[in-house]
Amino acid sequence: MLKIMKKYLIYIIILVLGIVIGKFALSGEQTQEHSHTETTEKSTMWTCSMHPQIMQPEAGDCPICGMDLIPAQESTTELASNEFRMSKNAMALANIETTKISEGTASDTALKLTGTIEANEKTNATQTAHFGGRIEKLYVNFTGEEVRKGQRIALIYSPELVTTQQELLTALRMKTSQPELYKAVRNKLKLWKLSEQQIQQIESSKKVANQFPIYASVSGVVTEKMVEEGNHVMEGGALFKVSNLNTVWASFDAYENQIATLKKGDVITITTNANPDVKIPAKITFIDPVLNTNTRTVAVKVELDNRNQDLKPGMFVTGILDTKVSKNTTLTIPKSAILWTGKRSLVYVKKVASEPVFEAREITLGKSSGENYEVVSGLNPEDEIVINGAFTVDAAAQLQGKKSMMNRDEAATTKETEAVLTFDATFEKAFHPSIKAYLELKDALVQSDATLAATKSEAFRKALEQITVAKRQQINDYWAIIHKTSKRINQNVSIEKQRESFQIISDEMITLLKNFKTFDQQLTIQFCPMADDNKGAYWVSNEQQIRNPYFGDAMLTCGSVVKTLSTGN
């Protein structure tokens, strides 16, 4: 009986312990469920790190690029009408960098020019044949060979010279009776650069020479060989071009907006790619008074001593010129921070120090100096601006309908917002076939078909060429860039290179089409923030659906419509 009671007691103790343990376990599970419910309630909205305009109440995939959605970050900061927020993940993925700008003095600036070493034109000379005939022997046989003044450089058979020698021998026998004839024949030989010694040799030997040597009239290096043995040359015909390389030019191209900072006699420090550690101090010798209208540059030349022959024509050189951009303190920003569209220059300013909140700011630029630009207006000292990833930030602004490269706020409807280009109806109609050909090229790149893209690029180029020269004058610079760039989309380059050229064409096409008044179909401007190494790239399409020409099937739907082009746009 006692054993039975002990047995029941053990069962009762085990039952009580089970109830207690279960109660505690259930309590902990309820606490976890309550905590999870609170977290879910707080993270009710989900967004895409690359497309922050996407907001969904549940986790899932981004409908644009297919990336996993992440919880949207909450902030108590109230945003102004043109301010927008990016997620910190998007900032990190796009490698967006910002910096505070500060005032700098003019003495802190320097102008960097690039150029090449060239032969000094003042020392260039052409070695000619003094008399006509056939070249029997050349003693200078290759470009780059050095010649000395008085050096024998060729042997020439000249029928005229043979005849004149015979005339000399005849005149010599009649020297006493007809001295004027004798003198005239001798002078004729001297005009052909025969020396007094050579003439006396003919007279003393009483023999006619069939071949006569030509001697170098200048010293230097042969820069161009213009004849071969056996060639016939006329009197005064060019044999070689010779340059004395004891002095050379360092020739630089200065852009139009840099001309005001340059003057003859300015000190410039020159380095070569061959010897980057060697700095050559010099002064500007010449500034071309005529602007090259194709490159919008002027030639700046510096004469350099080259007696040791270290400087070779064709070498790349860099010139650093200390120059004052302004007499007053000035704001300067890196070129990488600036977005250009037409006459507008934009930067993105970080508005909240602790959060990734940005706003587009239009600025007025002054002179460029190296990798920087002077800011005339639009920014203040201590403003924090985006210096890397500005295109990605601009894409986020466009997708959220904020002020950007493509969009301006309604308060900014000033005269500057009017179209920069004005086209008549006949030109726009003539350009429509080129738009159609461009769209077919775009579709070929969507298919990632390099061969088809090359064919469509050729068709696009032919469509451009159908525009008459008279009509082209309205877009001459744009037409030239588009036409030339289309030639790079050929079967000899990869699809990646084709897409790089297509991006250039698209930018120029967008600039033109934004100023059109009539279209034969509805067009949209689309943008992918991940193209061009996450800098972003635009293209024109005739459909609302995103079909990305920069990635094809790899990321076919990555992008968004940023502007619709239609009549009266």
Task: Give a description of the structure.
It is a single chain. 30% of the residues lie in helices and 28% in strands. The strands form six sheets. Strands 4, 5, 6, 22, 23, 24, 25, 26 and 27 form a nine-stranded antiparallel sheet that branches. α3 runs antiparallel to α4. It folds into five domains: 42 residues; 91 residues, Beta Barrel (conserved putative lor/sdh protein from methanococcus maripaludis s2 fold), CATH 2.40.420; 122 residues, Beta Barrel (OB fold (Dihydrolipoamide Acetyltransferase, E2P)), CATH 2.40.50; 78 residues, Efflux pump adaptor protein, beta barrel domain (Elongation Factor Tu (Ef-tu), domain 3, Beta Barrel), CATH 2.40.30; 141 residues, no CATH class. It is of the alpha+beta class and 569 residues long. The chain has twelve helices and 30 strands.
Write a concise keyword list for the protein shown above.
569 residues, alpha+beta, conserved putative lor/sdh protein from methanococcus maripaludis s2 fold, OB fold (Dihydrolipoamide Acetyltransferase, E2P), 5 domains, nine-stranded antiparallel β-sheet, seven-stranded antiparallel β-sheet
